[in-house]
Design goal:
The chain has about 375 residues and is an alpha/beta fold. It has helices at about 15-25, 45, 50-55, 60-65, 125-135, 150-155, 170-190, 190-210, 235-255, 275-280, 295-305, 315-320, 325-340, 355-370; strands spanning about 70-75, 85-90, 95-100, 105-110, 115-120, 165, 220-225, 230, 230-235, 265, 285, 310, 340-345.
Length: about 375
């Protein structure tokens, strides 16, 4: 195992990371703000000289390097087994592949971080879906059963960090399977297929929760639902309310039974049109809260009061501009951090246009602003 020497000390504290996270997300008193970040574009590991000199190549290593507070989760498998990755064609600069989700996409050979150009899906008809469901998304596949003893060794009851349980995706991953265009057509051309896909997503997670919830004292639930862009949801609010919300309510009933009352959803873009649905279903936290696609985090924290929590929301474009902009944005979020229910970090993975110097300035200022005094 690689030995990583931190470049900075952990923030001073008199609470455990677990105690701090639980209190901060419940609007209770804390010694200081929970200190975490959401990782980096792959280019940062090659462009930031300090990362290169210290052999930092991924988010887990960076979290140790920066001495961030610890947070962990137990996840459920999704596509099992994955589709075989196949190169279908290539040019001097690109490859067209079938990826692990069965999608046909064009990717750049130089490896720089960008959204692939999706060309098509392995699911074109209900018959295709039946085969994919049987071969890759079968709830009865015995390999889906979690290894409880392994996880108990990894996350003992005596842990001092928050532990979450994965609650999947009801529609975002379906968008991944079909492409945005495929989902749009599928809702109208094959509504029964789409409903069966959503139901299957829910059953996968329900089975996982039934198997794992009795064995752990989880501190939060987490999910992923990238179903919004800068102009709002990729599906109608009515569709989300009618087809997605009932499944989330089923999952929430299981979480409540085991005392889990913090549930964050990772959804980029403008989530405001479906935020009331999230809250009604028990999803009460947003992550990583992209500011330019939505609004300043304080606007929603003010509107929804203590019913809402936010994780993220530090505008990465301001981070790239340098100290004056970082100072101003940090000042703008200070009242909301101090109120509770808000853990600030870069509003998605930190991009390479943020220099190392600006990023360290941001980290230093965050500690000065929200560390233990």
């Amino acid at each position: 195992m690689k030995t990583i020497t931190p470049c900075r000390p952990k923030w001073k504290s008199n609470m455990t990371d677990r105690e701090r996270f639980i209190n901060q997300m419940h609007y209770k008193s804390i010694d200081r703000c929970f200190n975490m970040e959401f990782g980096y574009w792959q280019e940062n590991y090659a462009l930031w000289k300090t990362f290169v000199d210290n052999g930092i190549t991924n988010e887990a290593e960076a979290n140790i390097f920066f001495s961030f507070d610890e947070i962990s989760s137990i996840s459920a498998p999704w596509i099992l087994p994955p589709f075989e990755r196949i190169v279908l064609s290539e040019t001097e600069k690109t490859q067209t592949i079938r990826d692990g989700n069965g999608l046909i996409c064009e990717i750049l050979k130089d490896g720089h971080s960008t959204i692939p150009h999706y060309i098509g899906s392995s699911i074109q008809t209900p018959d295709d879906w039946k085969k994919v469901k049987k071969d890759h998304l079968n709830p009865d596949n015995p390999a889906r059963k979690p290894d409880i003893e392994k996880y108990k060794k990894m996350h003992p009851e005596s842990r001092n960090y928050p532990l979450g349980v994965w609650c999947g995706s009801m529609i975002g991953q379906i968008r991944d399977l079909l492409t945005v265009e495929g989902l749009a057509y599928g809702i109208y051309d094959y509504p029964e297929m789409i409903e069966d896909m959503i139901e299957n997503q829910c059953v996968l997670i329900e089975n996982f929760l039934d198997a794992i919830l009795p064995h752990f004292k989880f501190d939060y639930a987490a999910g992923w639902e990238d179903i919004c862009f800068k102009n709002g949801p990729l599906v109608s609010v009515e569709f989300y309310r009618e087809k997605i919300a009932p499944r989330y309510k089923r999952i929430n009933a299981k979480l409540k039974k085991y005392g889990i009352d913090i549930w964050y959803i990772d959804c980029d873009g403008d989530v405001r049109p479906i935020l009331p649905i999230f809250l009604d279903c028990g999803i009460n936290s947003l992550f990583p809260f992209e500011v330019l696609c939505c609004c300043h985090p304080g606007e929603l924290l003010k509107e929804y009061g203590k019913d809402l929590r936010i994780m993220g929301g530090f505008d990465k474009t301001q981070m790239a501009k340098g100290p004056k902009a970082i100072d101003a944005y940090m000042k703008s979020i200070t009242p909301w951090v101090e109120r509770g229910g808000y853990i600030p970090f870069c509003d998605h993975r930190c991009p390479p246009d943020v220099s190392w110097e600006n990023y360290v300035y941001y980290l230093d200022l965050k500690e000065k602003s929200f560390g233990m005094r």
